[in-house]
Design goal:
This protein has about 120 residues and is of the alpha/beta class. It is built from 4 helices and 5 strands. Helix 2 links the parallel strand 3 and strand 4.
Length: about 120
């Protein structure tokens, strides 16, 4: 199964785009990349899950860990591009209540910090 984590910089934000299944086998790669990005001094992150078709509890745990890491630096984290299947995981676990979710990266960059 193809799994990729891509990092790009946009207007003061770092966009981490994930493709493939975010699960126990792949989640450590996302964690490692996010730790690197935050260690470089980037504290405004968007995680784009538009290419993720499966998310398990380990993947969700990594996202929560990234949220804690970013907030410990007074930063912001948003998640975008949830497919219906992945959104269901966020709803059932009530993560939607603690993490800003947007449809697109542009929406996230415009709306973060305003709520």
């Amino acid at each position: 199964m193809l799994f990729e984590v891509g990092v790009s910089h946009r207007e003061g934000w770092v966009v981490i785009a994930v493709t493939g299944e975010l699960d126990v086998a792949t989640a450590p790669r996302l964690r490692q990349e996010a730790i690197r990005v935050v260690a470089e001094g980037n504290h405004r992150l968007v995680i784009d899950l538009g290419g993720v078709d499966f998310l398990d509890s380990t993947g969700l745990g990594v996202i929560i860990g990234i949220l804690k890491r970013v907030r410990s630096h007074s930063g912001e984290l948003t998640v975008v591009g949830l497919t219906p299947k992945v959104r269901k995981v966020f709803e059932v676990t009530r993560v939607l209540e603690i993490l800003p979710i947007f449809d697109t990266v542009d929406d996230a960059m415009a709306g973060a910090g305003s709520g």
